[in-house]
Write a structure and sequence with these properties.
By secondary structure, the chain is an all-beta fold. The protein is built from 2 helices and 28 strands. A hairpin with a 2-residue loop joins β10 and β11. The two termini are about 45 Å apart. This is Collagen-like protein.
């Protein structure tokens, strides 16, 4: 089920400032001489010399965007000075710094959303609406219909700005499905599976598709990215497919549209007998057309004994049985810096984020995210679903990993920041599982929560990982 909403933001009231232009006045003409007394006329006085023009004073107003170091919520900088060179422009050298004023907005604009449209696929339990992107020129939403191997096209051109409220919103189904992209038919490739991600940049669409290997493992083969050309007036036209790594899970265009990045998760099969390496594929976009070959950026340099092994923090969760670092790292989602220079890759199961230099096509570093201390008062949790109440408590000696899924990047004060949805994701396969209830642990009697993990109203129901925590390896 997809819901679409409009946004509205209250306007900020700010002072209106006018540019002031002050000019000097011409000098006054000289007075006429006084007539003489009767008899001989007096001599008239001569006219005075015109005064020179004065120098103009100018005002320059600069809007400060949100994130400004001095005005976190934006504002205005007002500069004044004399136009010494008479070019009607307040040049930098003419600004009187002592008169500069900065007026900051006191708050950020607030965001509110209201329901205006919904599409109901009437398909349930099959991941029928998972990832969505939008093409403005055709006013079309592209929705991953995962297990079908297709992408649905939804017409948003008829949506109004009128919100739907109350009970009418529960049954709303006012968005029409225009068509679908059948990636199996368009590519003509065998062994293709689910469509995992879609992304739109300009008039290009990219969709990631997983693929089975030759031995029948459903997602362990190298997947593909299928490209389509979009237009305002006709259905998408299939261009080509590009081979990438195992289990492509997310596709992301750089903000400048120069590359497409693909997170190849490389998950193991159920019995953990096949575990592909995780990687990031980089596909160059040249003259608005995709290259037909991808560059794979992997992590084998961080394997034990390899050139960069010493750079890998012990806080990065490497747990797969017999897995190398390159096999164990599983890229989940990619965000790109606003200047299109760096890709930030969430390694969900590993509780880390990798940084990739896009132009150099290399891993710059892998950042461990560390743990959240639930023993702190500010980090209280409600750890039980069996006490029928909200019961926020802090628990000394209990820590949580972030394990982010989706991430996005933004820039503030000349620094890149990442916002992450920390889903958490324990490995739980037939051949290997690290997941257990806290009540099933053999906990050291000296642990501060030794009693709490036997109580269903406290920590007994909490799911934890058994892959870390046994610091002295005594079981």
């Amino acid at each position: 089920m997809m819901k679409f909403a409009k946004c509205k933001a209250p306007l900020l009231i700010s002072a209106l400032l006018s540019t002031a232009l002050l000019s000097g006045c011409d000098g006054d003409d000289g007075h006429d001489g006084i007539n003489g007394i009767d008899g001989t006329n007096g001599i008239d006085g001569t006219n005075g010399t015109d005064g020179s023009n004065g120098v103009s004073a100018l005002v320059n107003i600069t809007e400060l965007l949100a994130g400004n170091a001095q005005c976190p919520f934006g504002g205005q900088q007002i500069e004044t000075g004399l136009d010494a060179n008479n070019n009607n422009v307040l040049d930098v050298a003419e600004v009187d710094a002592s008169q500069t004023q900065v007026i900051c907005n006191v708050s950020q604009r607030q965001l509110s959303v209201e329901l205006v449209g919904r599409y109901q696929s009437d398909v349930y339990g099959l991941s029928a609406a998972e990832i969505v992107d939008y093409h403005a020129a055709s006013q079309t939403a592209f929705v991953v219909n995962a297990q079908s191997g297709k992408v649905d096209l939804l017409d948003l051109s008829t949506l109004s700005q009128t919100p739907v409220v109350g009970e009418a919103g529960y049954t709303l189904n006012n968005i029409t499905k225009l068509a679908e992209l059948d990636l199996n038919a368009d590519t003509g490739l065998a062994l293709l599976g689910a469509v995992n991600s879609v992304s739109v940049s300009g008039d290009l669409l990219a969709a990631a598709v997983e693929r089975a290997d030759a031995n029948g493992n459903a997602t362990q083969g190298n997947g593909i990215v299928a490209f389509y050309r979009l237009s305002a007036s006709s259905l998408p036209q299939y261009l080509l497919s590009v081979d990438v790594g195992a289990l492509p899970d997310n596709v992301t265009f750089s903000p400048d549209g120069s590359v497409l990045l693909v997170a190849n998760e490389g998950e193991p099969n159920s019995d953990y007998s096949v575990d592909p390496e995780g990687s990031v594929a980089i596909i160059d976009i040249i003259n608005n057309s995709p290259a037909n070959v991808a560059t794979l950026v992997g992590f084998s340099d961080f394997n034990v004994g390899a050139a960069r092994a010493s750079e890998l923090s012990a806080d990065i969760n490497i747990t797969g049985p017999g897995a190398t670092v390159a096999q164990d790292l599983e890229p989940e989602y990619i965000a790109v810096s606003p200047d299109s220079q760096f890709a930030y890759v969430s390694l969900q199961e590993n509780n880390a984020i990798a940084v990739i230099d896009i132009q150099a096509k290399t891993v710059t570093r892998i950042n461990a995210l560390g743990a959240k201390d639930f023993g702190l008062a500010d980090n209280k949790i409600d750890a039980s679903d069996k006490d029928d109440m909200v019961n926020l408590k802090s628990y000394a000696g209990v820590y949580g990993m972030y394990q982010p899924d989706t991430i996005v990047s933004y820039r503030w004060n000349n620094t890149d920041f990442i916002v992450s949805a920390n889903e958490g994701d324990a490995r739980d396969y037939d051949g290997f599982s690290e997941e257990a209830r806290a009540e099933d642990l053999t906990l050291d009697t000296n642990h501060p929560q030794f009693a709490s993990i036997q109580d269903d109203t406290q920590l007994a129901r909490l799911k934890v990982t058994t892959s870390i925590g046994d610091d002295n390896n005594d079981g």
